[in-house]
């Protein structure tokens, strides 16, 4: 008997791709929106809803913000004029935002993580989050707190009835 293919989760409506692991691995401190410089075949591939951002991150180099390890698969009909799937992509931010990010990422433990890619009109946008890594004990505490909260809500609902 053949194995059933693993069912992939659909991103939220309007989103091309979401980084669901980011909330689990990182504590998101602050979010901001950035434009992204893409080639034509990359836009077509994104419009088909294909992108993987599991290991993606953003870095500030020479006063510019670059997105690394974002996988946008090649667009099949554009076989000759295709793009590299994991090339670094430039993010479009105002100078003041970049300066503020340089100051924030200089703090120990803060990094830039893309949380989702979406289209706003005809333009592709990336939601970046300034994030701090969680340790194992933080994750376990978060899971325990969620379970306690769920139990309290369940008990509260049963008492109302």
SSE inventory with pairings:
Elements: E1 15-18, H1 21-25, E2 26-36, H2 40-47, E3 57-61, E4 64-68, E5 89-92, H3 95-106, E6 110-120, E7 123-133, H4 136-160
Antiparallel strand pairs: 1-6, 2-5, 2-7, 3-4, 4-5, 6-7
Task: For this entry, give a set of tags.
161 residues; alpha+beta; 7 strands; 31% helix
Task: Give a brief description.
Strand 3 (57-61) and strand 4 (64-68) form a beta hairpin. This protein has a seven-stranded antiparallel sheet with strand order 1-6-7-2-5-4-3. The chain contains four helices and seven strands, in the order βαβαβββαββα.
Give a verbal description of the structure.
With 161 residues, the protein is α+β, with helices and mostly antiparallel strands. The protein has one domain: Beta Barrel (Small Protein B, Chain: A), CATH 2.40.280. It is built from four helices and seven strands; from the N terminus they run βαβαβββαββα. Strands 1-6-7-2-5-4-3 form a seven-stranded antiparallel β-sheet. The longest helix is centred in the last third of the chain and has 25 residues, at 136-160. The mean pLDDT is 83.
